[in-house]
Amino acid sequence: MATELIDRFGRVHTDLRISVTDRCNFRCEYCMPEEGMEWLDRSAVLTFEEIERVARVLVERCGVESIRLTGGEPTVRARLPLLVQKLAALGVDLSMTTNAATLVTLAEPLRTAGLKRINISLDSLDRERFHQLTKRDQLDAVLDGIDAAVAAGFDPVKVNAVLMRGINDDEIVPFLQMGRDRGVIVRFIEFMPLDAQGDWSSDRVVGYDEILERAGEVFDFEPIARGTSPAERFAYTDGAGEFGVIASVTEPFCGSCDRIRLTAEGQIRNCLFALDHVDLRAILRGGGTDDDVVAAVAGEVDRKWAGHGIGQVHFLRPSKSMSQLGG
Ligand code: SAM
Ligand code: SF4
Questions:
Q1: N or C end of the chain: smaller count of CB under 10 Å?
Q2: Among all ligands shown, which has an atom nearest to the Cα of 206?
């Protein structure tokens, strides 16, 4: 019997984000602390078989249509193409978010295994600044990774940049130019209060209006239909592709949110900013049936809030950082 994952506000949930590891080869300071990160024990992390089971149940019984692999950094999980192969067999729209540092070797095997779309995170095109932001001197590897993703046939390749005032807000035009030159869709994401340091403040957010104003000083573009994407989309009038803005803070899209998250240790979270979760791993490892899995996930979706409420007095940061939640 089908169980739609529908919350009390009527939002139907069809998009599953799966964090396959909490580990990462980078240390972006807005995402995880540079030192002192306590990694999950290997035994605490869901196995490929457990991930596949949850995905299959949610696809076959609950109408999940798209799955995005994330992390930590998903590509640091050994044998990732094997998991991709298992999930691709479910016939969903399968995508991945990655820092691209290892895509030169992994783009092709992931594509062959059945990965359909890829989103790459990159916050600076300046080598020194990139090093400072990620604590890794790997800008060239990432740029080569972007080219490898295009060459492997991922279409479109999206490059997401989180803009932070005083850090990289002078790179809006260079990023757009890079997207036009490399044939990828650049999307700017507003900085969210999920930084490990806890030093987010609203004046560090570079908002939607400002991004468009800066872009408009150099390029001509017009809005195009947004569809189900959280990004406002714009097409260059000279035909050189498109770019987008994901205004999660200044124009939240919570009203149409259709996402649920499975963390590396098997928690189901109904929002990036959720303060609570259901422990699916305990159900999986305690002999729970598929019905138990469905009931647990449906219950968590039912409890979902109307929205994150960033900037409102009752807003509380979750205790986990973005690297543990998957973005
Ligand atoms: N390691 C992969 C990557 O970097 O693409 C996947 C996981 S990462 C947590 C997912 C996304 O979250 C990245 O695009 C990253 O830029 C974004 N992110 C991390 N911290 C953020 C924050 N405080 N505000 C907005 N986006 C953030
Ligand atoms: Fe790693 Fe991605 Fe977080 Fe950067 S944003 S530290 S690449 S998980």
A1: N
A2: 1
